[in-house]
Amino acid sequence: MLELPALVNKSVPSVSAVPSPATNTSVEYKDTPLSYRIIEPSYVEKVLVSTNEQDTTLIKILLRQTRRPEVGDKFSSRHGQKGVV
Fold first, then answer.
1. How many helices (H) and strands (E) does the chain have?
2. Residues in domain DNA-directed RNA polymerase subunit 2 hybrid-binding (predicted)?
3. How much is the pLDDT for 15?
4. Which helix (H) or strand (E) holds 11?
5. Please, what is the average pLDDT of the chain?
6. Cα(43)–Cα(10) distance, rounded to whole angstroms?
7. pTM across the whole model
8. CA distance 12 to 25
9. Distance in angstroms (rounded) separating the CA atoms of residues 42 and 62
């Protein structure tokens, strides 16, 4: 099997139940890396890294693909003029 490069090394809690604050148990995490699985090449357009109130890191990746227009594709200009190929 072909090993795909990881885009984001993601970790998720291994237990789906939320522990109560009264218990002082530590939550175990398992690695679930996010990898690119589409055949066509793409480019990373934008990466947004932020955190929430609980200091949980949130990463959003916007990918861009360059391809030829096909029949039925819709286009729109910045002024709202729309057209179909």
1. 0, 8
2. 21-85
3. 75
4. strand 11-13
5. 79
6. 20
7. 0.50
8. 16
9. 10
